[in-house]
Amino acid sequence: MNDASKPTLILGGTGKTGRRLAERLTAQGLPVRIGSRSAAPAFDWQDKASWAPALDGVGAVYISYYPDLAVPGAAEAVGAFAELAVQRDVTRLVLLSGRGETEAQRAEEMLKASGADWTILRCAWFSQNFSEGFLVESLLEGEVALPVGNVGEPFVDADDIAEAAFVVLTEPGHVGQLYELTGPRLMSFADAVAEIGRAAGRSIRYIRISHAEFTAAVVTQQLPAEFVWLINELFTEVLDGRNESLTDGVQRVLGRAPKDFSAYATETAASGIWSN
Ligand SMILES: NC(=O)c1ccc[n+]([C@@H]2O[C@H](COP(=O)([O-])OP(=O)(O)OC[C@H]3O[C@@H](n4cnc5c(N)ncnc54)[C@H](OP(=O)(O)O)[C@@H]3O)[C@@H](O)[C@H]2O)c1
């Protein structure tokens, strides 16, 4: 638990998980400071000089890195940020991490080595990648083509991640704890796309392609080279079967089962995001 009168700094506070955490804290009357390039003061992972002003007077930090902990230099940045926070007496740090990712696990070790009162939320793939991430456009076009086959992934809902972050930040007993957060069911990407199609009342095809075909396809969409690298890295490293298991992390933190992908698909389809 931290001093409730001081704001919680939420890095990536307008992103998929940070925005939901900010809403939950604000709804309870708890002060929040958004940490992002568009916030005031601005926080930029690429500009170390922006880190100390963002930490000024805060009681705790939710650390979500951007764009991904798999990116070279991310672990060092998280480690340096955690050290600076501890030096400035902001010791309560919660890290959003990724399951089965070597670099994310290195970031976790650097967080622990900083001397912080840490909690780690090590997450599966977010369901919201299909609605607030890079897959939205292909879903709208009616065809998702990815370099991943029949591997099972326990997609986790960003609402559950934010709820878990809220609980570990506002209730005692979570310092020094690592929670692996997964959804309740292993699904392939083809299964997920089929569920979204059913929920949206549309026919959406899933096609498995090779890494070379995927790279060629994203290059023609004129996406930045770093993005192409990152997506290939994640599809190669994380989706090789290593994460084909469920965990009880959501149950341990929230005392209830995780939200199922079908609930996510139904709710999200109702927002109209997958309708054209
Ligand atoms: N997606 C997944 O399936 C998954 C799974 C496991 C773990 N993760 C981890 O989750 C983290 C991402 O979390 P998320 O999906 O909740 O966030 P997100 O939606 O990717 O983040 C967007 C946020 O980051 C801010 N941002 C962008 N560039 C920034 C910069 N240079 N410096 C500071 N802030 C910046 C944006 O605000 P501005 O534009 O205003 O700066 C916005 O608030 C990554 O570390 C990733 O490794 C993701």
UniProtKB/TrEMBL annotation:
InterPro entries registered for this protein in UniProt: Ergot_Alk_Oxidoreductase (IPR051604), NAD(P)-bd_dom (IPR016040), NAD(P)-bd_dom_sf (IPR036291)
PANTHER family from the UniProt entry: PRESTALK A DIFFERENTIATION PROTEIN A, PTHR43162
Organism, scientific name: Mesorhizobium sanjuanii
Protein name: NmrA family transcriptional regulator
Organism placement in taxonomy: Bacteria, Pseudomonadati, Pseudomonadota, Alphaproteobacteria, Hyphomicrobiales
Pfam families in the record: NAD_binding_10 (PF13460)
Domain of life: Bacteria
Gene3D superfamilies: NAD(P)-binding Rossmann-like Domain, UDP-galactose 4-epimerase, domain 1
Domain spans labelled NAD(P)-binding: 12-137
